[in-house]
Amino acid sequence: MQINGSSIASNLMDALNNSVDDPVHHGTARLSRSQFSYSFRVSRGQKILRLHFYPASYEGFEGFHDLFVVESGHFILLSNFSASINSIALGVRSIVKEYYLNIGENEQLNLVFTSLSSSMYAFVNGIEIISMPPRVSYFDGDPGVVRVVGKSRVYVDSSTALEMVYRRNTLQRPVLLDGDIRDLFGMWGGEGSKAKRQSYTWRISVDVGFSYLVRLYFSPAFEVSESGDFVFEVSINNRVVDSYTDRWNEKNGMVLYRDYVVVIKGREHQGKRDLLICVSADGKVVDGQELLKEFEILKMSNFDNSLASPNPLSYPAIEDSIQVLGARTVIPSDSIALLALGCFVFYVTRRIRVSSDTIKVGIMPSARAQGLCRRFTLAEIRQATKGFSGENLIGKAGFGKVYKGLIDKERKAVAVKQLKPNARQGSREFLNEIEVLTRLRHDNLVSLVGYCNDNGEMIIVYELLGCGSVAKHLYKRSSNNADSFASSRASLTWKRRLDICIGAGRGLDYLHKHSLIHRDVNASNILLDGNFKAKVSDLGLVKHLSRSKLQSRVKTKVKGTHQYTDPSYATTGVLTQKSDVYSFGVFLLEVLSGRAAVDPSLGDNECNLVPWFRENISEGHLDRLVASDLLHEIPDDSLKIFLGIAERCLDGEPVRRPAMAQVVQQLEWQQETPGCPVPYWLQLEFWQQETSDDETGSTFV
Predict the structure, then answer these.
(1) Same fold yes or no, 2-132+332-356 and 162-300
(2) What is the CA radius of gyration of the chain?
(3) For the chain, which terminus, N or C, has the lower number of CB atoms within 10 Å?
(4) CA–CA gap between residue 311 and residue 317 (Å, rounded)
């Protein structure tokens, strides 16, 4: 463990008050009126992170003046947080926050605590880090795919952080409240084993503006007596999200848990909404055995990579929070002053959130971006690339050149992109890419290592991806390396090409869900790591849509690679996320045919890929669109479905193109069930019907 920054360890002023039932000792805390951080070397995998706060007076730090931010990597765990306000609101002596993070290979777990002003302070009493068994991991799967409910899949991977907001063991008898055993959550309906239908409902208050992962753990001992006829149903917010009919018994067993995701929509000022979970079953149940053993509700990081909730601001909100915890508490009269402080916290929150949406254009990246990546000196870059030597050159284009480099005593290989001073990617694009890549992280986005802007240089350092660009494998043949090109092309089987399309689609879908448009999707900007996993790169031209204005399009100067550009965008200057979908459709054709979007070496009728594609589709010559090395590898039905997906992406009317999330789902369906028709719930018509959901309610994904 390493501690950085300016902070001190201080003792509790009144040790007699430290009588909290908590495994972490609260007699001391680390505090600072500026910023301090921890760095932990941990193994790869999912980690449980617990932060313990005991708000009180410490030596040199007066109580109830805490207001701070806690970050881990690019995630904001707490923002404008006051443990004091929360402890009074909840009627507790200490606060424990539990998070789940997925740590990659050779990564450290970093925690940064930042006070919001010199008159306030940041503090922590204890930090727990626990490795979680893979069998119960929230990041398990392919890659962490949460159960499909409704209209899209949700991927829980290293780009997502989780916070445990509620956990309940349902087999325990409900807590008595004022002599009423019903509690907030009720009990199993009916008369035990004699009832034909049993149902159980919970009502939990949660923050708006977040997605929540609901995990239900079923009792492995549950069995159905006699005939065994059984109907199982789960409803969330009065909507049936899962049902199952079968003969479940001890022999065939039951799944250990099921995962569901629900989005709780609403404006920030609305604070909280109720999340209702109902589990019901038809069947004759053996005495003493419950259907549900336990359930958990975990908040998922939002588009800003944040899990932060506002401090309680009003008495009703406080009362609701206390009821959810299953206890009533009288609020002390001196909390009024703290609630006034809460109004100040709300103002600071609003001000910070407004400013964080703006990409700073200047000589330096924003302070937050600087804190999340490394700034290299020009001397370090020259040493890493051997003075930008030709033998280290691995790529070049209109923006500049890319070199292979070795950093950290030649132990780590990186890709160094040196932009031309007069390149189309100028200083604005240079800073834009740094800001985007420090704010977002996904398995299918290239990872940023750092940057250099010494002496007017614009240099970005990325992770090195061993297999280069998709274009290199498809059609960028080197005259002195023909054998290597042939070998590379042969390694791109149909299954691998489909995997590449899905990976690239997931990366673009991730950008779209964060209200971003790539603007330069092409085969040269889709890179492959050593395992041929696709990663979207070159994010300098990314355009931001304003979520506060519910913006879905923006009028802007046309940029990007000409042969991939959406014709509607090129003629009107109106940019939407469907412009990326069009470019992705061109990419799909390249992957299938092994041809570039424009190939001047071919005749006039064949040099432009999209018109040539449409001509062959209309004439029924589908085999002409397939690369020669794939002709006998793709089943006819699979080919028709793939071409159908590409054709929808290339529709002349942007509104008729599918969303990127739908394209990914259709490709995944094709991968999992080759040749099977795409089901109705994955088709565009279904999605158009689903988009009419109430914007202020809850939607299911």
Answers:
(1) yes
(2) 28
(3) N
(4) 10
Architecture of the domain delimited by 361-464: 2-Layer Sandwich (3.30)
Q: Looking at domain 481-700, what is its CATH homologous superfamily?
A: Transferase(Phosphotransferase) domain 1 (1.10.510.10)
For 384-389, which contacts have Cβ atoms below 8 Å and span 24 or more sequence positions?
Answer: 384/414, 384/416, 385/416, 388/418
Tell me the angle at which helices 315-324 and 83-90 cross, rounded to the nearest 10 degrees.
70
Q: Which two tokens stand for residue 17?
A: 């008050």
Architecture of domain 2-132+332-356: Sandwich (2.60)
Specify burial of residue 559 (Cβ count, 10 A radius: 0-12, 13-18, 19+): middle
- The ranges of the chain with pLDDT < 70 are 14-26, 135-136, 139-157, 170-198, 219-231, 243-256, 267-270, 282-291, 312-363, 397-398, 421-425, 476-490, 546-557, 675-701
Q: Is 241 helix (H, G, I), strand (E, B) or coil?
A: strand
Q: Contacts from 244-248 at CB under 8 Å and sequence distance 24+?
A: 248/222, 248/223, 248/224
CA dist., res. 152 & res. 693, Å (int): 14
Q: How many CB atoms lie within 10 A of CB 629?
A: 14
Tell me, what's the pLDDT at 513?
A: 87
The residue among 550, 571, 572, 569 whose CA lies nearest residue 560 is 569
CA distance 72 to 108: 10
Count of CA atoms in the C-beta half-sphere (13 A) of 548: 9
Give residue 235's pLDDT: 83
How far is the C-alpha of 493 from the C-alpha of 496, rounded, in Å? 5
Measured between alpha carbons, how far is 643 from 654 in angstroms, rounded to an integer? 18
Written in H, E and C, the secondary structure of 384-433 is HCCCCCHHHEEEEECCEEEEEEEECCCCEEEEEEEECCCCCCCHHHHHHH
- In sequence order, the 6+-apart residues with CB closer than 8 A to the CB of 50 are 96, 97, 98, 99, 126, 127, 128, 129, 130
Note the pLDDT of residue 479: 44
Whole-angstrom distance, CA of residue 211 vs CA of residue 162:
10
Give the Cα-Cα-Cα angle 44, 45, 48 (nearest 5 degrees): 120
Q: So which residues are the catalytic ones?
A: 520
Neighbours of 594 (CB within 10 A): 18
Contact 213, 220 (CB under 8 A): no
d(CA 194, CA 208): 40
Amino acid 77 reads: L
Phi, psi of 130 (to 5 degrees): -130, 130
- DSSP 3-state assignment of 670? helix
Residues 44 and 50 sit within 8 Å (Cβ to Cβ): no
* Phi, then psi, of 478 in degrees rounded to 5: -95, 135
Amino acid identity for residue 492 in this structure: L
Class of residue 390 by CB neighbours under 10 A (exposed 0-12, middle 13-18, buried 19+): exposed
pLDDT, tens digit (0-9, with 9 covering 90-100), for 244-263: 654 444 334 444 677 888 88
> What are the extents of the domains in the chain?
2-132+332-356, 162-300, 361-464, 481-700
| Residue 367: per-residue pLDDT | 74
Strand partners, 400: 397, 419
Give the right CATH number for 162-300 from 3.30.60, 2.60.120, 3.30.1890, 3.50.50: 2.60.120
Q: Are 587 and 504 in contact (CB under 8 A)?
A: yes
pTM of structure: 0.57
Instruction: Report the C-alpha gap between 257 and 248 in whole angstroms.
Output: 15
Q: What is the pLDDT of residue 336?
A: 32
CB 160 within 8 A of CB 80: no
DSSP single-letter state for residue 27: S
The pLDDT of residue 402 is 93
In the sheet that holds 122-124, the strands lie side by side as: 8-11, 28-32, 122-124
